[in-house]
Specification:
Helix content of chain B: over 70%
Structural class of chain A: alpha/beta
CATH class of chain A: Alpha Beta
Shape of chain A: globular
Largest sheet of chain B: none
Number of helices of chain A: 10
Strand content of chain A: 15-25%
Oligomer: heterodimer
Strand order of the largest sheet of chain A: 8-9-10-5-11-12
Number of helices of chain B: 10
Shape of chain B: elongated
Radius of gyration of chain B: 21 Å
Strand content of chain B: under 5%
Number of strands of chain A: 12
Order of helices and strands of chain A: EEEEEHEEHEHHHEHEHEEHHH
Number of strands of chain B: 0
């Protein structure tokens, strides 16, 4: 059998991964990711309580919320790196935490993830980072891998940087290389963990645009975990707001911009105080604490 | 009092739990070693980093240890009029004991700590998580090649340490002090047994290689993903593997050289 991958003819010996075949996301109407009544605790500290959300195929969905509200934990639960305390996560119809090791790895081959600071392999060049999964999971000839890697790097505008080491890249460039690596096997689901953190305005805008364009070009679905409201509302189709382990608001980007819900308003407008308090909760009030101190001084 | 007992109990439980985890980790390495053997370039790369790059410190240390043995050995032997036996003393001390033990201690400090720091930093910078999310098992891809790289390197490093030590003993004993060259080599050749001495030394260094590599990869993999955590793990690698080497050396020596 002779097959065509990315317009290039390859011979009988090459194992063609099914994820190179881009599917039309509109053909299947069921959501790609379905989270039902999901709860998760670290030791006895609850992180997520009764979360319900769904990620439709072909869409870019943002999960927003303040730091430590459980956004990254949600991504790790979707990727099967954590097991929920209760509830379930379904990806493409399969319950993630019910999969055995081999099936979980097979599912992860169809997922791409961009970590907060790129998580590039520091002992490999940009080229080898992007080629990593292709070499690990396919028997594609090195010439074809070369073409695919340069194609991915070209998509993120870094074809010319393929020979550089991660230590030679700026923060924005490293994020783009990590993005090229995340889409190396044309995944059905791309997860972004704080893709805008620590980027300058130009890099931020570039990464934002790439997330949208790559999602549409690959026919994939994307989950963007972020607290960067302005940039993410420009590119996403739907937004979930998470606070204290619960979903407190959801809707399209336009609906969120117009929302008068106190939490959404505080988040979108970046107000210091509101439903998310400025002060970390203390056992006693500040006034009571000062008075108690004065009483103790008096006794002495 | 109750609190002290409770704390002690908690510490013992934690230690036992960690030992159990380390044992399961060791088993996982063995089970996932197929990749290291199938893709030999991964292991060869680690042999280069842990073995070849440790050569300088091993060779220089071996030379000096051999030179010191030559001086000390001659000083003691000449009191009994048997300074010709210097070659035997130097060779047996090195092949049986000092070669495997000192080389392993140096290996733990130089390569063991580097392995721990590298794996610990990979964990802290989410590289291991990224690998997992790419459906690549970090134990098979990162840990096992480093483990086998260390295990394979160690006997060669110990052998080179001993060879260099014998050369150091020769330099001091024969060239500097003037011990008869023929006696030096002939007595060594007659007294050092390949199976009893050399092979047992190789077995020792292999066991030490397993200990150091296991401790190093485990501490790196189990490190807290912070700067402080990685630094603590690196220190624990050197301390734990050094103590384990010395304890294992006593046990192996008792088993190998009983009554000989």
């Amino acid at each position: 059998m002779v097959a065509h991958v990315a317009g290039i003819k390859i011979g009988h010996s090459a194992r063609i991964p099914p994820f190179f075949i881009v599917q039309d996301p509109t053909l299947n109407q069921s959501p790609l990711v379905q989270i039902s009544d999901l709860s998760f605790s670290y030791d006895s500290r609850p992180i997520l309580t009764g979360i319900n959300l769904s990620i439709p195929r072909g869409k870019v969905v943002a999960i927003m919320g303040s730091s430590g509200c459980g956004k990254t934990t949600t991504l790790r639960l979707i990727g099967g790196q954590l097991r929920p305390s209760s509830g379930e996560v379904r990806v493409d119809g399969k319950v993630v935490h019910a999969l055995n090791g081999a099936d979980l790895y097979a599912m992860r081959r169809r997922m791409g993830m961009l970590f907060q600071f790129g998580a590039l392999f520091t002992d490999m060049s940009v080229y080898d980072n992007v080629a990593f999964q292709m070499r690990e999971h396919t028997d594609l000839p090195e010439e074809l891998i070369h073409d695919l890697v340069l194609m991915k790097l070209h998509a993120v505008g870094l074809r010319g940087a393929h020979h550089l080491m991660p230590s030679e890249l700026s923060g924005g460039m490293a994020r783009r290389v990590a993005l090229a690596r995340a889409i190396a096997l044309d995944p059905m689901l791309i997860m972004y963990d704080e893709p805008f953190a620590g980027l300058d305005p130009i890099s931020l805008s570039i990464v934002g645009e790439l997330i949208r364009k790559l999602n549409d070009a690959l026919g994939a679905s994307s989950i963007v975990v972020t607290h960067d409201v302005q940039e993410s509302l420009k590119i996403v189709d739907y937004v979930y707001f998470v606070s204290e382990g619960k979903i407190v608001a959801e809707g399209t980007a336009e609906e969120m911009k117009r929302s008068t819900a106190p939490y959404v308003h505080q988040f979108v407008c970046g107000e210091a105080d509101g439903p998310v308090p400025f002060h970390y909760s203390a056992k006693t009030s500040y006034r009571a604490e000062l008075m108690e101190r004065d009483v103790r001084r008096g006794e002495r | 009092m109750l609190e002290i007992i409770r704390r002690l109990g908690r510490q013992i439980t934690n230690r036992l739990w960690r030992l159990g985890f380390a044992s399961r980790f060791f088993l996982a390495i063995i089970l996932h070693s197929g990749t290291s053997l199938r893709r030999l370039n991964l292991t060869l790369r680690e042999i280069y980093f842990t073995g070849v790059l440790s050569l300088i410190i091993i060779l220089v240390s071996g030379l000096f240890v051999g030179m010191v043995l030559g001086l000390q050995g001659y000083d003691t032997l000449q009191r009994y009029g048997s300074s010709e036996a210097l070659g035997v003393l130097v060779a047996l001390s090195l092949v049986r004991e000092l070669g495997p033990v000192v080389a392993a201690l140096l290996f733990a400090s130089r390569a063991g700590s580097a392995i721990t720091a590298e794996i610990g930093l990979m964990k802290a910078t989410e590289q291991l998580s990224a690998m997992e999310m790419m459906a690549v098992d970090p134990i098979a891809r990162v840990v096992a090649p480093r483990f086998w790289g260390g295990v394979i390197s160690m006997p060669f490093l110990a052998a080179l340490f001993s060879a260099m030590g014998v050369f150091g003993g020769y330099l001091v004993g024969v060239q500097l002090i003037g011990v008869d060259e023929g006696s030096f080599w002939a007595q060594m050749q007659a007294s050092v047994d390949v199976r009893e001495d050399v092979l047992n030394g190789v077995i020792k260094s292999f066991v030490f290689g397993v200990i150091v590599s296991w401790v190093a990869v485990f501490e790196g993999y189990d490190a807290e993903p912070t700067a402080e955590g990685v630094s603590g793990a690196t220190t624990r690698t050197v301390v734990t593997s050094s103590l384990a080497i010395l304890a294992a050396d006593f046990v192996l020596t008792a088993l190998m050289f009983r009554g000989t």
